[in-house]
Specification:
heterodimer, A: mainly alpha, 9 helices, rod-shaped
Chain lengths: 247, 161
């Protein structure tokens, strides 16, 4: 006899009864219902967990905002040690507007310089010094525009409130400078009579722009005296110096 | 396909096989039926996707073995008298197959499983090792010892190939 065959024959008599099959199927249906209930429970638990996670994230975000605000406060306290705070830069909403304003300011500054350079041109006899004025004015305006984005540029912002007074002039001061620049070579080339004409033109332009009368248009001569600020290579320092002198 | 339909198909396909395997563990039909029911409920909980029929069959056997072992453990914890402790008389004198079955059921649990999987399910020793989670050498030695014991009980009239 073969053991495997006899063992198989004995085992083949063991069969699953139909009652047992039905019992298993009914139990599996009940188990399915329990599983569905479990899924609902798990879904509710997952929703609660998600709400908790969202709450934690919002709390962390608030904490991060608070920590991000702290260095700004320190920076402000540091900038108070500086001559001027960054507040003037923050007051300007747009960089382009700030650049325009500063260009106006610098052009208004450049006016006396052109006169001064005109005076020096008279002494030196070169038109090049007169031609330098618009270049330096535009360069300063560009520098002021670039400085407007930098919060640490306090010195140019310092000149802004001083020179913002001539802003309500109906005519832009750039035209005046153009007139001035057009006349400066003539003054350099011609004699003091031409300078008088130039003075007349500038007076006429100043009369046309009464708001811009605060700009030192009439020439005082003798190296640009009369308290007019001179834009130089370092305008901020000079501006502070002149303001210091004025004060 | 709904879950109960799939369970019905699996019962038709593997019901008898699982009940027999459970019987080799419990050595009585009520416990074997309960274990078989637990096996199918576990299958319903998981309902995994199988690569092929062999994979499905092996998974069912593995689940049945684990279910029967855990059930036996719980029965022992409840201090219920196990049928292993009872000497089952070998009825080979009648010359029918029931004597062989009773002789196999008289073996310890680890030998019974190996004999059933080897002679009835016709698995090889490496496959039995994978199914039971035991080393192949252990399975071979268990099979050898089980044959030795059966020879001693049943006599020399059986071929153990």
């Amino acid at each position: 006899m073969i053991l495997s065959k006899s063992y198989k024959d004995a085992m083949d008599r063991i069969k699953m009864s139909p009652e047992l099959k039905e019992r298993i199927i009914s139990a599996s249906e009940k188990g399915e219902k329990k599983r569905k209930f479990n899924f609902a429970y798990i879904g509710a638990a997952a929703a609660g967990l998600a709400a908790c996670i969202a709450l934690v994230f919002t709390l962390n975000a608030n904490r991060a905002e608070k920590t991000a605000e702290q260095p700004v406060e320190v920076a402000e306290s540091v900038t108070t040690i500086a001559p001027e705070p960054v507040a003037t830069v923050e007051a300007v909403p747009d960089e382009t507007e700030a650049a325009e304003q500063k260009s106006r300011v610098e052009v208004a500054k450049a006016e006396p310089e052109t006169k001064a350079s005109g005076a020096t041109a008279r002494s030196s006899g070169g038109t090049a010094s007169g031609a330098k004025a618009p270049v330096s004015a535009s360069g300063i305006a560009a520098a002021a525009g670039s400085e407007a984005s930098a919060p640490s540029a306090a010195a140019p912002a310092r000149t802004e409130p001083e020179m913002s007074a001539p802003e309500p002039a109906p005519e832009p001061p750039a035209e005046d400078t153009r007139v001035m620049m057009a006349k400066i070579p003539e003054t350099a080339a011609e004699d003091t009579a031409a300078a008088e004409d130039n003075g007349r033109i500038s007076v006429a332009s100043a009369a046309a722009a009464p708001g811009a009368a605060s700009a030192p248009i009439p020439r005082s001569g003798g190296g640009g005296g009369g308290g007019a600020p001179r834009p130089t290579e370092k305008p901020t320092e000079k501006a502070t110096e002149t303001t210091g002198e004025e004060e | 396909m709904a879950a109960d339909e799939r369970v019905g198909i699996l019962i038709e396909k593997y019901g008898d096989m699982i009940l027999r395997l459970c019987y080799t563990y419990h050595k009585n039909m009520p416990d074997a039926e309960d274990s078989a029911q637990d096996v199918f409920l576990k299958i319903l909980e998981k309902l995994p996707e199988f690569n092929d029929e062999g994979h499905e069959r092996a998974w069912m056997i593995r689940v049945a073995i684990n279910t029967c072992k855990s059930r036996l453990r719980s029965l022992r914890l409840r201090r219920a008298s196990s049928i292993d402790d009872v000497d089952i008389p070998v009825m080979d004198k009648y010359g029918d197959d029931r004597g062989v079955l009773e002789a196999v059921m008289a073996l310890p649990e680890r030998f019974r499983t190996v004999i059933h999987l080897y002679y009835y399910e016709e698995y090889s020793t490496p496959e039995i090792a994978r199914l039971t989670g035991r080393p192949e050498t252990t399975v071979r030695s268990d099979l050898h010892r089980a044959r030795k014991r059966l020879k001693a009980v049943l006599g020399g009239g059986y071929d153990f190939e």
